[in-house]
Write a structure and sequence with these properties.
Elements (H helix, E strand, L loop, with lengths): L1 H10 L3 E5 L1 H8 L7 E5 L3 H9 L5 E3 L5 E4 L2 E4 L2 E2 L2 E2 L5 H6 L9 E3 L4 E3 L4 H7 L1 E2 L4 H4 L5 H12 L2 E2 L1 H10 L8 H14 L3 H10 L2 H5 L1 H4 L16 H9 L9 H9 L10 E5 L2 E5 L3 H12 L7 H12 L3 H7 L5 H8 L4 H13 L7 H17 L9 H6 L8 H13 L6 H15 L3
Parallel strand pairs: 2-5, 10-11
Antiparallel strand pairs: 1-2, 1-8, 3-4, 4-5, 6-7, 8-9, 12-13
Helix pairs in contact: 7-9, 7-10, 10-13, 13-14, 13-19, 14-16, 14-19, 15-16, 18-20, 19-20
Length: 437
């Protein structure tokens, strides 16, 4: 349908081109579903009349009039923060962020308009901004440079790198929710998200948007369990462990922030077999708490924050189960009621493999054992004892209902009983002991 829309726009004295990511991906030979169309030479009221011939459309973006119809986006070029229907395609192209995103494609003639050397930059694998002034009108574009560098494994031009180093402080003016969108793209779309974060670190931007993460480069780790280096290096290695189809945003946020607490707690030196080790007591709790606090500046998605903070809080638990020789059903049951175990194991896997140590056999086997045990007990996680059972059994102190329910569920997880009859017997013994009735 978009071809027919473009034809109709031309009949009415305007012109329209597919622009941006679709054209870039077409040149790179990568499939793309998103079709964005930029419109020239026709006023909004006339464009709306044209669009009405093709069905219902709606407006998005109050300031910049983005038209949505049948999955396509149509918009005007912009100038001085206003739509500019009558500027030239060449001028509009210079106002786009990067040369590789400034390509215009006419699907009727098959012509690609390239005013900024975008095709050549794609072939050479270079990320280059189109214009100093227009690029900095939206400082978020500095994060987009990092995202595209990691996403396509391109090199950033010297001119663009210098611009970022000189103007990185401008990122402070960008709203947190917009920054978060770019972080999400880095975590989910890039084969190696570490490339983006390392680039941001090298050029000063990371300290401005995620200071806690940036400062991890100052936190030393022991060479026995972390021969790869400091906590920042470890975190970057962790980010690249999972394949893209294994990821979701909560998991990747947990991996990104799982060790930020190491910069908040007091490290302790211990000796093991004559080797000095550095441990960070309480860093999981500190990491989870700090993440829950700082992430609110970027998103108000409560479930996302809750899930990621839980993965951070319990990310050491599989290791503790291994070291304490309690990889068993009871421990797995108790953990399963606190956190999604399959998701947690992905975070733990990234933590294990995201380091320079090659001997990870025990940890990886632990992941398999916990996973098998979880499959065996997942059907047992439903509480056997409900409130109505406590009433029937004669619990009189109603204010203790939640406490008693929690107690009974804990004992269920510890295998003190496995059915309702056994639970009733256990309850009466416990009630007499604790004075519940």
């Amino acid at each position: 349908m978009y071809r027919e829309i473009i034809k109709e726009i031309k009949k009415n004295g305007g012109s329209a081109y597919i622009v941006g990511g679709y054209v870039r991906d077409m040149i790179m030979g990568t499939p793309s579903k998103d079709i964005d169309i930029e419109v020239f030479g026709i006023e909004p009221e006339n464009l709306e009349t044209v669009l009405s011939r093709f069905g219902n459309w709606k407006m998005a973006g109050k300031d910049f009039q983005i038209y949505l119809i049948n999955g396509y986006e149509l918009s005007y070029p912009r100038k001085n923060n206003r739509i500019a229907p009558n500027i030239s395609v060449e001028e509009a192209s210079r106002r786009r962020d990067l040369s590789i995103n400034s390509l215009y494609y006419d699907p009727l003639s098959g012509e690609v308009l390239d005013f900024n050397g975008g095709v050549d930059d794609i072939e050479k694998g270079i990320i280059r901004h189109t214009d100093d002034e227009s690029f900095l009108e939206d400082p978020l574009r500095m994060l987009r440079v990092a995202q595209f560098k990691a996403r396509f494994d391109f090199q950033v031009s010297e001119q663009t790198t210098m611009l970022l180093k000189e103007k990185f402080y401008k990122i402070k003016s960008v709203k947190g929710e917009r920054i978060f969108i770019e972080i999400e793209k880095i975590l989910l779309k890039c084969e190696k998200p570490s490339i983006a974060f390392e680039f941001l670190q090298e050029n000063g931007l990371l300290a401005y948007i995620l200071e806690d993460l940036s400062r991890l480069s100052e936190i030393e780790q022991d060479k026995v369990y972390h021969p790869e280096g400091d906590v920042f290096v470890h975190t970057m290695m962790c980010l690249d462990v999972l394949e893209k189809d294994e990821r979701n945003l909560a998991i990747m946020l947990a991996i990104l922030f799982h060790d930020i607490g190491k910069g908040l707690v007091e490290p302790v030196d211990v000796l093991e077999n004559g080797e000095k080790l550095i441990v960070f007591p309480g860093h999981s709790e500190a990491s989870s708490e700090r993440f829950s606090s700082l992430i609110k500046a970027y998103t108000n998605n409560k479930k996302l924050i809750q899930d990621a903070s839980r993965y951070i809080l319990y990310h050491e638990e599989p290791l503790k189960m291994l070291l304490e020789d309690r990889v068993n059903k009871v421990a797995v049951r108790k953990l399963a009621v606190k956190v999604d175990i399959p998701q947690l194991l992905k975070v733990y896997q990234a933590d294990v493999l995201g380091r320079g140590r090659e001997d990870n056999i025990q940890e990886l086997e632990t992941i398999k054992r916990i996973s098998r045990l979880f499959d065996e007990i997942r059907h047992e996680l439903e509480p056997i004892v409900k409130g109505r059972h406590l009433l029937y059994w004669g619990l009189e102190k109603k204010k203790e209902f939640s406490e008693v329910l929690e107690f009974m569920y804990e004992k269920q997880l510890e295998e003190k009983f496995s059915n309702l009859d056994e639970a009733q017997v256990y309850f009466h013994i416990a009630a007499k002991k604790h004075g519940w009735k």
